[in-house]
Specification:
Length: 57
């Protein structure tokens, strides 16, 4: 498990194997705006919206 920076995709705390880290970074790139909106919601004590998973190709 890891905490990942939503702006840079870098691991802030914890560990992810390289393959999984690359997938998380790709997912963040695709959904950054939604993730940042969810962050704002949680700071207001509100529930975050669902974000679609990364689709395999």
């Amino acid at each position: 498990m890891a905490q990942v920076n939503l702006y840079t995709g870098e691991i802030m705390e914890g560990y992810l194997p390289r393959k999984e880290h690359n997938l998380v970074k790709k997912w963040i790139e695709i959904h950054r705006e939604e993730l940042l909106q969810n962050w704002d919601l949680t700071e207001q004590q509100m529930l975050p919206n669902k974000v679609k998973p990364l689709e395999s190709r």
